[in-house]
Amino acid sequence: MALIEARGLTKEFRIFRRREGVMGAFRDLFQRDYTTLRAVDGIDFVVAEGEMVGYIGANGAGKSTTIKMLTGILVPTAGSVNVNGFIPYKEREKYTRGIGVVFGQRSQLWWDIAVIESFKLLRRIYNVSQEEFKARLKKFDDILEFGSFLHLPVRKLSLGQRMRCDLTAALLHNPAILFLDEPTIGLDVLGKAKIREFLKEINSESKTTVILTTHDLGDIEALCPRVAIIDKGKMLYDGSVDNLYAQWGHDKMEDIVKKIYEGCKPEQYCMIENWGDTHA
Amino acid sequence: MSKQSGFRQDAANHIIIFFHYMAQYIKTKMAYRADFFIYVFSDLLQQSVNLVFILVIFTKVPAIKGWTRDQILFIYGFFLIPFGLYSGFLNHLFDVPEKYVLEGELDRVLLRPLNAWFQVVVETMNPELLIGTLTGIVIMVYSGNAMGLVPTWWDFPLTLVLVFGATMIYAGVYTFLASLGFWTEGNMGLMPMVYNLSNYGRYPMTIYRGPVRFILTWVLPFAFAGFYPAAILMHRYEYIGYALLTPVIGILSFVFAYRFWVAGIRRYRGTGS
Q1: ipTM of the complex
Q2: Which residues make beta-bridge pairs with A11?
Q3: Are B113 and A110 an interchain contact pair (Cβ–Cβ within 8 Å)?
Q4: Which residues of chain A does B19 touch, with a Cβ-Cβ cutoff of 8 Å?
Q5: Are A248 and A266 contacting, i.e. CB atoms less than 8 angstroms apart?
Q6: pTM score, whole prediction
């Protein structure tokens, strides 16, 4: 059975449009002008155990909203979702025991306490045995090398250091699925390389299923045999990276993705004349 | 596993985690020692000012509407006990609208396998403010002695029940106000107003006019967090009806507020931050 199965997953937000000026603000008091935004529009998304899927899309395409529905933070407006045997939004406390989540933009760790103390607290929250905890910490440290700043509070870490700690924190309880929302955002080349190496290792060794969103296509090329592309809430492509290249008759992902965001289709002529200089 | 034992297990788990959070909190505070002492000092200072205020008034008048200095002190002493518990654990529920809803910190909370309200409370607690509870006990014992009060054996378990009820009233009122933040998506400035009002609970209700008394009893029931329970503990049994209502009002307000909180969380998960 599929580990993640979402059918017709949809999320609508009601956006309150403020009127301009003082009179506008006054009118807003009495009559509010709402528009409905369909952030995720009926997508199907099925992932098997052990897969590593890149999930990409322009800013505001609906990536984060999808991740938030899959992780149980948001309740879908329509459609069905089943992950790891749970309906995420219904059995939140049980479901979250089996997943790990990293948001690149926001740390999951406690700001003021030493990194190791955060880890220890998480060990208690997830009921991880002392032996497993130590073994995992050592294994992660071999690649991520956080030993030197384990005793610093999170607020004193650099972005790269923080991200390595966040990754460790998300994996301490050995989750079946790891969700990563822009895990390499703002990292330097070495930092990215380290994180990619680590994710590869986790995926191949512990069979952890990984879903990652990113704007850095290098992450996809380095890690994900499969890619899903979303735009304006709709799934535009979901399949292997190889197949994507074959469809477009081209092997520069950046070019292809640009075309897709521009609204081109592989069979259309528009993309061929503009392949850009990178290919030449 | 039956549902009942699942719940019990879950509750036990939360209690254990509570102490781990507490241990972490103490470690953090050790890193900011100055902070810790400033907190405790400013809290004690505030209580001293309130105390001196009462003492000064009673150098001018022997009694206020029939209430003596020691009786007023006794009420203040009792008031401080649940108030210290509230300050230590629930005071920062007023962070919810801004920090958790508007800035989206609640996302992180919802990703952990623990109750969301519990997490917010343990993440924002300031247990050093429990010092107020100690001050309260000292004032109660002192003033009780001064008025020649002889406690009966049931006064002690009764005190525990009343303190529990009074703390639940604070928990209820502030959980309710915090939950409003799920709809307003930001602070409405109601919290400071209500906080000020809560201080009226530490004077005899008989000094207020009818409407104020009504509000403090039935709308924002802070009278049950100070005056009514204190009255029965100093054996003014004409208030026994009200005093015994304290745990009932406490549980009712918290249950109602918690339901409102759950509805707020549901809304958040429907609309996002």
Answers
A1: 0.87
A2: A40
A3: no
A4: none
A5: yes
A6: 0.88
